[in-house]
Specification:
Number of helices: 9
Order of helices and strands: HHHHHHHHHEEEEEEEEEEE
Mean pLDDT: 84
Number of strands: 11
Radius of gyration: 31 Å
Largest sheet: 6 strands, antiparallel
Oligomer: single chain
Distance between the termini: 76 Å
Shape: elongated
Structural class: alpha+beta
Strand content: 5-15%
Length: about 350
């Protein structure tokens, strides 16, 4: 006998379910909340998923290895072009040195150093900063040009004497190429020193010295083979010095990029593709040309828009102007690897090297 509860039970068949119609207004688009419903997200969602910043393709002109290499090559060619008319080949030049023989190396070092000092500011469109750095690089380049030339000549003379005593008598002997390369590492070191001084960073100078020495050393090694192929003289010096300048600048840029630990990469804006390595304890961002990170062509950016302070492992952004982090306005934030920052028409990705 059925119980009362069985008699009162509601039975739903498959035909009943098929006949149910859902009002169209009750359906929401996938991923979008119904009107009036507040959505707070989940702990797995990041704020960045709610904004979209198109990534622009960066120009090779904004890569440090490129503009430093170009600056070194131009400086070396300019120094050679000035001194070459007064340069003399042969044994007579040793007993009666011409003025070109005396000044060619110091002049090339000087102009390379000036190029390294101002090239970054030129790329960043800061003419005023380039002039200030150039004014500092000129006397430093002249002073270090002659000092480092004496050091290089000393190293070269000692190396050549040792090589000759060991039996390396011909310029076709690779041992003599290596001697020149070792001596010319000094030229690259000079460029790195000035690069750090005008950039007001000892770490930048250290990376510059290391990269410059490696690049100039490589350029020095290939100088003699170039002279053998071109049969010496004017052409060999022009090509050889140009490659030394190029290799020095490229070496500085590559080492600097490889050893960096914290930097801002420009994702969007006029400087898209440029990376600003955070060397200093305080890095200024603004529309002043003297700013460490100069942002131009945007009237909404203040002269001193923000600063980034580094204290140990802590990297703090402090903004006086409008700065968006993941689409939200911030005034103070401890930066973390991958943070996306928007300043006017510019977008930056903060990156840091993970230490194992």
């Amino acid at each position: 006998m059925p119980s009362p509860s069985d008699r009162d039970a509601i039975k739903i068949t498959a035909e009943d379910l098929a006949s149910v119609a859902i009002p169209e207004s009750a359906v929401s688009v996938a991923g979008a909340p119904p009107s009036g419903l507040k959505v707070y997200g989940t702990i797995n969602e990041t704020a960045e998923q709610f904004i979209s910043v198109p990534t622009e393709r960066g120009s090779i002109l904004l890569q440090a290895w490129f503009y430093l290499g170009l600056a070194g090559m131009v400086g070396a060619i300019a120094g050679w072009a000035i001194a070459e008319p007064g340069f003399a080949d042969g044994a007579g030049a040793q007993s009666h040195p011409h003025w070109g023989n005396v000044v060619i190396i110091p002049l090339i070092i000087t102009l390379m150093c000036i190029g390294f000092g101002i090239s970054e500011s030129i790329v960043e469109r800061s003419v005023r900063k380039a002039l200030l750095r150039g004014a500092l690089a000129v006397p430093l380049g002249i002073l270090l040009g002659f000092i480092f030339d004496i050091m290089a000549e000393t190293i070269y003379g000692i190396g050549m004497r040792i090589s000759y005593e060991a039996g390396a008598q011909s310029m076709r002997n690779p041992a003599l190429w290596i001697v020149r390369g070792l001596a010319w590492t000094v030229f690259g070191a000079a460029g790195g020193v000035i690069y750090g001084i005008v950039g007001q960073s000892s770490k930048k100078g250290t990376y510059g010295v290391l990269g410059g020495a490696l690049g100039a050393g490589l350029g020095g090694v290939i100088f003699n083979p170039i002279a053998l192929v071109t049969h010496g003289g004017t052409v060999s010096r022009a090509v050889g010095f140009a490659l030394v300048g190029l290799a020095t600048g490229v070496g500085m840029g590559l080492v600097e990029s490889a050893l960096k630990d914290r930097w801002l990469y420009v994702v969007a804006g006029p400087l898209a593709g440029k990376q600003f390595i955070l060397y200093k304890a305080e890095t200024s961002i603004g529309s002043r040309q003297e700013s460490d990170i100069y942002l131009f062509k945007d009237p909404n950016i203040l002269p001193r828009h923000a600063v980034i302070n580094i204290s140990g492992a802590r990297v703090m952004l402090q903004a006086t102007g409008s700065v968006l982090w993941a689409g939200q306005a911030v005034h103070n934030r401890v930066l973390q690897d991958g943070d996306l920052l928007q300043v006017g028409r510019y977008a930056f990705r903060y990156k840091e090297k993970h230490r194992s």
